[in-house]
# Entry
Amino acid sequence: MTEELKDGTVEANELQDNGSLEMESNEIEKSKVGIMRAVVEAEDPSAKEMDDFMIRRFLRARDQDIEKASNLFLKYLRWRRAFVPNGFISTSEIPNELAHDKLFMQGLDKKGRPIVVCFGGRHRQNNIEELRRFVVYSLDKICSRMPGGQEKFVCIGDLEGWRYSNSDIRGYLAALSILQDCFPERLGKLFIIHVPYVFMTVWKVVYPFIDSKTKKKIILVENKKLRSTLLNDIDESQLPAAYGGQLPLIPIQDA
# Structure
């Protein structure tokens, strides 16, 4: 057998092995989803209304640990009933946050994930409960706008013009807690751009509260590499016009 044929045979075998491992992993995860569903439904019958994709996201957020994922999921169900008793947050509940005009949606990245743009320099400290409602309103809206089969979104966090007057560590941690504990495995990637030096002081405070899975999704982008970095993940036709693309930004309430 020639070396070329040997190499081709080895590569084919490796691909077959990888495919078999992936299939086995999917079957294991599917089995765990079924077990977790039985656990959470026994504790909280309202879990029956949730689909397997949601249960799978919580399971993945806790590295396939059924007990930890179930506890987080049950906590989420209790929180959702208490915090969103009507099933949704209305714009009338978040007037001050919407007035800041800081969150937008537009376009899809190369993986079909919705693109969200947040302008950190427009944020102002506000009533913490209204901020929490705004975060839930926004994440609900983003999730409802995802194409079929898609579970994640991409965010561009633009800190141009950010000053200490925009600093809101309590608010940042509240938003982070909701994202990680109530909407796990929804964030696909976060590009933080136009990062001012003064922001790094706040970043050092917030960073330890970010879980390891989320940390891997965050990219601090150098100004000189901004366009090329974004274009690696987003086609120019889908890139917001603010960053050299072709699409206008749409306020989150109008998305």
Summary: The chain has a mean pLDDT of 92. The chain is about 50% helix and 10% strand. The first strand starts at residue 103 and ends at 108. Strands lie at 103-108, 114-119, 153-158, 187-193, 218-220, 250-251.
